[in-house]
Design a protein that fits this description.
Bound molecules: S-adenosylmethionine
CATH topology: Rossmann fold
Strand order of the largest sheet: 1-3-2-4
Shape: globular
CATH superfamily: Vaccinia Virus protein VP39
Order of helices and strands: HEHEEHEHEHEH
Largest sheet: 4 strands, mixed
Distance between the termini: 19 Å
Structural class: alpha/beta
Radius of gyration: 18 Å
Number of domains: 1
């Protein structure tokens, strides 16, 4: 899971931002069958031509939120995008999204097609009173509901997910709920402390 900083704030401003993130993508491609790269659409579009050779574009995902409180005059931003990149031999698990009736049909060999989840995930931004219990104070925290389908689609129980710019640790929280393992990192001590508290990890084990 790669949700980079927005080239401002913690992480600073880099003139070579696109090249830097591309180099991280290349390294992730060596260790992971699936990569999810997050960003605003206009930034993410630049990576479509920079996909590591070992991987292909499996899906362009959109996170759609209606509750952005922006007061800028004009269009109110309501989307974040995510490139799902994967190797040709990697496994996808659309069956993880079947309900009990569909699972029953599948067991009887009567499921005629596998209805996967939609590539647009609608979930509100964690602002104000929305998702109060989930909010950690991290300025760019993603809702767990947004990461859940991604992890469900590309992993099974016991698999390992790496998030090198984990922010508030959403990947870790979702992995814990879903019985996956996670390795998390962040450049900010303040955010690592947020993760530690959120996941109740003692300082000596962080
Ligand atoms: C968009 S936020 C991630 C938010 C996260 N997905 C969540 O749900 O909380 C990006 C994070 O990247 C971190 N970051 C910036 N530069 C980094 C670097 N070189 N190495 C590791 N983390 C970095 C920032 O501190 C920030 O927490």
């Amino acid at each position: 899971m790669l949700d980079p900083w927005y080239n401002k704030g913690v992480g600073g401003v880099r003139a070579d931002y696109i090249e830097y993130i591309t180099s991280i993508l290349e390294e992730l491609a060596e260790i992971s069958d699936h990569i999810y790269l997050w960003g605003f659409p206009e930034v993410l579009a630049r990576f479509v031509e920079r996909i590591p050779r070992s991987h292909q574009l499996t899906a362009w995902l959109t996170w759609y939120y209606k509750n952005n409180p922006s007061v800028i005059r004009g269009w109110r931003s309501a989307q974040n995008a995510c490139l799902h990149l994967s190797t040709p031999s990697s496994k996808l698990y659309p069956e993880h999204f079947l309900n009990s009736a569909q699972l029953e049909l599948k067991a009887k060999g009567k499921l005629r097609y596998m209805p996967g989840p939609t590539s647009v995930i609608e979930s509100p931004l964690l602002v104000g009173f929305v998702g109060r219990k989930e909010q950690t104070g991290h300025p760019a925290q993603k809702p767990q509901a947004v990461y859940e389908p991604l992890i469900k689609m590309s992993t099974k129980q016991g698999d390992l997910v790496f998030d090198p710019m984990c922010g508030s640790g959403t990947t870790g929280a979702v992995c814990r709920l879903m019985g996956r393992n996670a390795v998390l990192a962040d450049i900010s001590d303040e955010y690592v402390e947020i993760v530690r508290k959120r996941l109740m990890i003692s300082p000596e084990n962080a």
